[in-house]
Amino acid sequence: MTSPSSTTVDEDGCHRILRALAVIGARWNGPILLAGARGARRFKEYRALVPGISDPQLTLRLKQLQERGLIARTVVPSTPVQITYALTADARELIAALQPLADWSERNLPNSDA
């Protein structure tokens, strides 16, 4: 078992953490970011990697993640026009920051299938 960090989180830091958790915890955001990390680029690829999400909900979440600076939308001028989505550096940094939390949950939380 590792000891807690000597760094303390002040009230402002706590509020920033809560805002970050609100972004990550919003329905579909986590699976969409993971789909991007798995290589999804086009809308249909995101839809295939996020089972159960509707087209309108995926459109809305991609737009919200783009507004937060976590997804970059690129319009490729072609016939027909192609639109691609990619994780930004901030999104990749966020995913890397969540890895210790994922590791902790694997060790300490029971399997949800049980």
Key structural traits:
114 residues; 5 helices; mainly alpha
Question: How would you describe this protein?
Answer:
The structure is a single chain. The chain has helices spanning 11-25, 29-37, 43-49, 55-67, 89-108; strands at 71-76, 82-87. The protein has 114 residues and is mainly alpha-helical. It has a two-stranded antiparallel sheet. Strand 1 and strand 2 form a beta hairpin. The chain is globular and about 55 Å long.
Shape: globular
Alpha-carbon distance between the two ends: 25 Å
Tally of extended strands?
2
Largest sheet: 2 strands, antiparallel
Q: How many helix segments?
A: 5
Which structural class do the helices and strands define? Answer: mainly alpha
| Share in β-strands | 5-15%
Helix content: 55-70%
For the biggest β-sheet, the strand order reads 1-2
Q: Please trace the helix and strand order, writing H or E for each element.
A: HHHHEEH
Mean pLDDT: 90
- Low-confidence parts: none
Radius of gyration using CA atoms only: 17 Å
Outline the fold blueprint.
Elements (H helix, E strand, L loop, with lengths): L10 H15 L3 H9 L5 H7 L5 H13 L3 E6 L5 E6 L1 H20 L6
Antiparallel strand pairs: 1-2
Outline of this structure?
The protein is mainly α. 56% of the residues lie in helices and 11% in strands.
